[in-house]
Amino acid sequence: MQKPDSQTTPCSVVVLISGNGSNLQALMDSSIDSNYRINKVISNKADAYGLSRAEQANIATQFIDHRQFNSREEFDSALIVAIDEIKPDLIVLAGFMRILSNKFVRHYSGKVLNIHPSLLPAYPGTNTHQRVLDAGEKEHGVSVHFVTEELDGGPIIAQDRIEILSSDNAESLSHRIHTREHILYPRVVSWFAAGRLRMDANQAYLDGELLPAAAIKPT
Ligand code: GRF
Fold it and tell me: Could you tell me if 178 and 22 are in contact, meaning their C-beta atoms sit under 8 angstroms apart?
């Protein structure tokens, strides 16, 4: 893949989705005044609303049905072919509900970002909003991280946190977390596009500084 050159060509991004795509929408909206362009959106679900959002923005879309493949590796090989048609600088997972194979992660090492609705390393996996409520947590949040072979375990780049209110339920937390995600994710993508962000030896660096495990709060 090419290196982003923020002085000339905007960073080319492929976004992988499975559903609503509100983060995709935030990324598309921000890209208008930013240093990256979304050149393709790929979904493993035919009815993902995010595909319609991309089509409305005249962005190329592709549906690849994971059920048509015998193994995770075969599906991921088809994904790699679809992504490499674009030769993107960055791959952004935005509600992509598939675990990626080690082959895929190695192929794009240091070039894949994910957003996860918890304060990682707490609450990897799914159903995070209900789980934090069930555990009686006082705060919750969102994390953006590089994707590595460990599920939701790659180096954290940025987090934002919210206080859990006594009136919160899983739905209200989802809504409040999404609002934060829509600000945080475009910001991190623009850091990458500017060449400010990199992963080296499973650690994240911003402007050459090692990012702390308890990652920075956005400004
Ligand atoms: C977000 O909560 C994100 O953190 C998680 O999946 C959800 C996607 O939401 N990975 P949307 O499809 O972007 O609305």
Answer: yes
